[in-house]
Amino acid sequence: MTGRPAETWKKFKFATPPDWVYALLVLVCLGGIGILAFAIVTAVVSQRASGYLPLTRSSSRTAALAFWIPVGLLIACPVAWAIAAIFGFSSGDSSAATITGVFFWLGLLFLAVGLLGRLLVTPLVSPRAKVWPIAPGQTDRIVELRNVHPAFVVAVQRQQQARAAQYTPAPPSPILPGSK
Q1: 69 in a structural domain
Q2: CA gap 73, 110 in Å, rounded
Q3: Is residue 178 a part of any domain in this protein?
Q4: Which residues contact 161 (CB under 8 A, 6 or more apart)?
Q5: For 129-152, what is each residue's pLDDT tens digit?
Q6: pLDDT confidence of 180, banded at 50, 70, 90?
Q7: Read out DSSP for the chain?
Q8: Residues with Cβ within 8 Å of residue 128, at least 6 apart in sequence
């Protein structure tokens, strides 16, 4: 991702839903059930691939933080709402109402920032990929990496050319005149 030599390997999982799945976003109008149905269908029909990519230690740390900070905020959201519910139902004094309001809005803030981080920030700082369906006659999926450094692309192309050269048959030896 940085163009510098890799120091470590990190496992990534990629999933690409088919284009027709986005037509199901109409289900979101149904509310929570529609969102759940869209998420389930997307998870079931997506093309998936995983593997290790070479990274520097700093880019590995950045990718890990870009994943775990939004996930932590999304986990903190229901925790804040549970605390708000506990204070809201436990007593009726004004300080409990204030604490309930603070934790409710804090949970809403955690939800918004967590979703923004997961949907906007993480894709910008982590490798992304499009997973293609298995082509006829092939045994594996093609994974098109994005958000990687051009030097990485050149290195991969060189590796692929070297691998392809191994499978190319040797040119026939020239037949010299007068030899049989």
Answers
A1: yes
A2: 5
A3: no
A4: none
A5: 999 988 888 888 888 988 888 888
A6: low
A7: --SSPP-EEEEEEEEE--GGGGGGGGGGGG-HHHHHHHHHHHHHH-EEEEEEEEE-HHHHHHHHHHHHHHHHHHHHHHHHHHHHHHHHHH--SHHHHHHHHHHHHHHHHHHHHHHHIIIIIHHHHS-EEEEPPPPTT-SS--EEEES--HHHHHHHHHHHHHHHHHHSPPPPPPPPTT--
A8: 14, 145, 146, 147
Phi, then psi, of 132 in degrees rounded to 5: -90, 150
* 8 Å CB contact between 132 and 47: yes
Q: Please, which residues bridge with residue 130 across strands?
A: 144
Number of domains into which the chain is organized: 1
Using pLDDT thresholds of 50, 70 and 90, give the confidence band for residue 26: confident
Query: Whole domain around residue 135: which residue ranges?
Result: 8-148
Residue 43: inside a domain: yes
Residue 96 lies in a domain: yes
Structure tokens, 81:
């709402």
